Amino acid sequence: MGFLWCFVRLFIKAPAGRQRFNVLGALHATSLQLVTVSNCDYINSQSVAALLRQLAATFADLPITLVLDNARYQRCRFVQALAAELGIELLFLPPYSPNLNLIERLWKFVKKECLYSQYYEKFTNFKQAIEDCLAEVSGKFKEQLSSLLTLNFQTLENVSL
């Protein structure tokens, strides 16, 4: 076992304050077209409703199946009624299975591009970096994402609990 000493302390800037920027999104499984709704408050059933309405408007001529996790605000009656009204099928994943949701891979990519080893002096710069990254999903990042956002999902078979 060895030790490494550093006689010069390095101070890394970290953002001050506690501001929030939420992005709720849906990703078309084959065309990789991204539809997002963002806010600086909290994600709730109204946020999900806004996403459902935007999806219905964007893909009006196509059948829509939206893959969701088990968040309470996604399972509520209001969201389910609106989805039925808009003709959107809601497919809920089993608990603790983000590996089965394609958009989780995109969120990981966005975090890597925008957050890792990055310091934003102002919240507006942070927010803009995320919005710019999401805007380039079909452009600048399309080639990188084409191998990451595939429909090959890891599943476990013959598992005894």
Describe the overall structure.
This protein has 161 residues and is α+β, with helices and mostly antiparallel strands. The protein has one domain: Ribonuclease H-like superfamily/Ribonuclease H (Nucleotidyltransferase, domain 5, 2-Layer Sandwich), CATH 3.30.420. Helix content is 38%, strand content 14%. The chain has six helices and four strands. It has helices at residues 45-58, 72-75, 77-86, 102-114, 123-135, 142-148, and strands at residues 22-27, 34-39, 64-68, 88-92. The strands form two sheets. Strands 1-2 form a two-stranded antiparallel ribbon. A two-stranded parallel ribbon has the order 3-4. Strand 1 (22-27) and strand 2 (34-39) form a beta hairpin. 9% of the residues are buried.
